[in-house]
Hints:
There is one protein chain. This protein has helices at residues 4-17, 22-34, 38-51, 56-65, 74-83, 90-106, 110-127, 133-146, 149-154, 174-182, 195-199, 217-234, 252-258, 271-279, 293-313, 323-328, 330-340, 387-394, and strands at 164-168, 187-189, 240-243, 263-268, 318-322. By secondary structure, the chain is mainly alpha-helical. The protein has a five-stranded parallel β-sheet, sandwiched between helices. Helix 4 runs antiparallel to helix 5, helix 4 packs parallel to helix 6 (90-106) and helix 15 runs parallel beside helix 18 (387-394). The model has no long low-confidence stretch (mean pLDDT 92).
Amino acid sequence: LRAESQAMDCLKRALIASPRYIPAMFNLATLYEEDGSKDKAAQYYQSILLIDPKEYTALVRLAEAQKVSDSNAPIVQQLKAALNDFEADKSLKASLNFALGKVLNDCGQYDSAFKYYTDGNNLDAAGGLKYCELDQETLVQDNIRLFTEQWFADLAPVSDEAPIFICGMFRSGSTLIEQVLASHSSLTAGGERDFFVRLATEGSLQAYPNGVDRLEVPSLKVLADRYLDELYKAFPQATLVTDKRPDNFLYLGLIKTLFPKAKIIHSTRQSLDNCLSIYFLRADTSINYATNLDSIAHYYKQYERLMRHWESLFTNSIYQVDYDNLVENPEPEIRGLLGFLELPWEGECLEFHRLKNRVKTASIWQVRQPFYQSSSGRWKNYERNISNLKEALRH
């Protein structure tokens, strides 16, 4: 309900009643993470480990929140010891592998880091839904077949509103873009709204995009109003809200059907860096391509194919922001982006890391730092591990 301050009050009262109640500690730590209070979050995770040293999720969170420079640091040894605990289940072992990959990457131990990342992904792949290349190709082809110039030329007006969407591949810099924009006085970060993902898995649209062509204008208006109503209820005081769900690129045909004036910000990044960043993050099980580099490469190529189609249809309402250009030359990139949104320049956008708001994505700590370029070209550290990925992206 986005009533975080009330949630904190409830959780603190729970801990007064039961000071060693670990679920309340976890939830408080998460809330402090979201608003950028790293030290407070760490204190709760450390308290959890004092109560129960086998609460390995707290250990993983501590590893994610700190920069490690020594491969013999206590956190590294703790993670390795936890990984050797035969009582830990597969899910916990996967998390521990990803955490070890992260800290060893921090230390520059790239071959060891890659090994742990691979072990973590293999554990998740064994228990998850297998990625199907044919299904993804069919989804992309159905979008291209249905949403054509003629489709939009024949479409009766549905809504005159112009919501703002930030989309692209996961791990392409979309959270950074949203934080930059949220630092502007006219914009509010809406985070990853799942409205269109839900639409595509329920009722008459569960075979999306098939079924969209059977909806009459009144039904389309209902969908548009539902989306706007959800935004208003979540952000009643906001003037403009950004919807930063990366995989909304799959639903741009429906989005532009409902909102012809919608503005689309397309976040992009060097392809190898982008694909490796996906592989190095323990993703939600719904992102079933993320555990295998071949699958990530296939998904990436299909994403490129679909985005080329959208850009041919919506030339004037899609604006591309390249992550590497943004971190290297932020001011001109931000000026161009604000110009696309028809908003005046505000210097606060350069100080996005000072913004006091809540971030609920995997980039929770990265966007609390000023612009940095260390993630650009990161793939070169792993060049000898990714020859197949390089070859797949080349074709």
